[in-house]
Amino acid sequence: MPWNTLIISVLLYIVVPVVAAQLWRRALLKAGGQAALAATLRGLGPLSLLALLLTLVLLFGLQGHQIVRQPAVILLLAVPILIQVYFNAGLAYWVNRRLGVEWCVAGPSALIGASNFFELAVATAIALFGFQSGAALATVVGVLVEVPVMLSVVQIVRRSRGWYERGQA
Hints:
The protein is mainly α. It has helices at 3-69, 71-98, 103-114, 118-129, 134-159, 161-168. Helix 1 (3-69) packs across helix 5 (134-159). The longest helix is centred in the first third of the chain and has 67 residues, at 3-69. The radius of gyration is 19 Å and the shape is globular.
């Protein structure tokens, strides 16, 4: 992988958006305080969800024929992702419990520990190999698998709150 492509991808997809968001946040706080920031975030909530859905539709639309045509390949890509997400989430959740971390912190910690950051992988794969590449397909499968699996991890964390908090005492 060419280093300059990786660096440009990180700059474009991570650094620039984070810097822009921080500058915008500062401007909002300076102009209208916490109320202006809260109002802007409420307004952006539905837009960000819509942007995510549009991105997923485009990705799956571009790779849909590959997904349907190659179920064995999709399964070979999906199984390790499933194992990794559940293992990492479970390990992070258990370690937090053993360390006495509050449940409200342990749940997000488990999700962050299990996340694969497929968004960056998708962007990098497309930048390096193109929309129709096997690399793009692999990252799309990652997104396809990770979203429902992470939602199931959220359910597990929510349902296990009693177990978690009994272990803290």
